[in-house]
Structure formats: C-alpha cells, structure tokens
Amino acid sequence: MVHWTLDDIPCDRFDAAKLDPDILAIVKAASLVEQNGADYARYLHGVFAGDTAFQDAATQWGTEEIQHGQALGRYATLADPSFNHADACARFTAGFRVDLDAQASVRGSRAGELVARCIVETGTSSYYTALGEATDEPVLKAICRRIAADELRHYKLFLTHLDRYLQEEGLGFWGRLGIALGRIRESEDDELAMAYHVANDLGSYDRRRASEAYARRAYSVYRRHHVERGMAMVLKVVGITPNGRLNRFATGLAWWGMQRRVERWTKAAA
Fold first, then answer.
1. Is residue 8 part of a domain?
2. How many domains does the chain have?
C-alpha cells in the first residue's frame, strides 16, 4: 500500500522567494539516489532468495523509494526548469551501478544486510526530517515530511526482519557494530558523490570534491536533536538500549565531528 501519491504534493504553493540554492543542490542529488530504489530492490531479491515475505516487502519498499525520487525530481524541476530529472537519472546509473546479479550480501550474511539497511533508513529518516525543518519553502517541506515518515516505517520494517534473522544466524554485538560503523562511513562513498556531481553538472568527476560539496551542504541542515534521534536508532540496531547517558555521549561525539567537518569544508570552499 502506497501511503501517499504525487498528487498529494501541494505544488501550487511553491514559493521561489523561499528557495535556498544550497538546499536545491542536495535535493537534486537526493532525487537520483531515491530513484535508484528499483535496482536496490532487485539486489535484495537476490540476497533474500526463497524468503518471499521479505521479497514482497522489498518490492513495496522499492516502489516507495522510486516515488520519493519522482517527488524530489518534480520539485527540483519546478524550482529549476533547466534540470532534466530523467536525463540526470540515466547519467547517474551509468556512473554508479548496484550489483543486480548478487546472490549473497556484501555484508556477509542476511542479518548483516538488514543491519546495513536499518542504518541507511536511520540516516534518511533523520536527513529528511532535518531538511524539512531547515527549509521555509512550503512544497519541499511537505515532501520531506512525507518521505521522512516513509523512511521511519522502512527502518521499522527492516528492524523487524533483522530480529527474525538474528535468531537464525546469531550475528553478535561486535558483528552488528562493525557493519553499522562501516555503513555509516560509506555515506561518503561514490553513490552520493556521483549523484551530487551529475545532478549539479560539475564537469569532470572528482569524487572527493563532489563528496565534500554534498556533505558540507547536507550536514548543515542538521541540528543536535536530529543526531540524537538518529543515534538512538543506531544503538537499537546494534543491540544496545539507547538510554539517556549513552545516547547523549554518542550524540555529543557525532555532533562535534559533524560541526568540525562542516567548518573545515566551508573554509576550504572559501
């Protein structure tokens, strides 16, 4: 069941005066990554061959991810009529490919794959919540609110299946922690860098430059409470009760790191 449609987006309320060019740049990139949902769903079908319950859930998840890409792409075109979303998607998938023929998870097990998926949904749920609060543009705010709600449901979906596979495969705390930290580090891999590069026509591809340009803008929309909420979700995935003291410590460390990196990248860009 799709919880909303593109017709629910109040595009007639678009206010160009409240448009932030930096936010538009990362929205364009996000539209490409989200549109890639079909390829990721196919990858998950291969990894979870024989598990029809999860495959059905992955199909629905992929459908909703594609809708996110369509909503963001439509918005980006509304804000910048020169932006061709379909063309940008084609160039992005040509530059970044998901392994569509995989029969096993790159995380080493199905439980490990679900840990990684939970971390991704933690990041996207927090990101779209932060982005929706950072913008004053009413149409983008409405889109982000809907996407953030979807991503939180996706997190809960993958967490439910993770609990099932933990009973079968017995992935321990250290294994889950290692996968979670690894997936967090991958947030600066080629996927987001390539998406930002293609969406904003940066010329010849420089992964580091594109990655830093994207992250500098994306990290800037976060506030401490977004990081705190995301950290609680991460702790739950690795099997730790997200109590107040531990969550505050982890949040403080992550927030300090994000702020330092934004400051460094901003100085470098200047």
1. no
2. 1
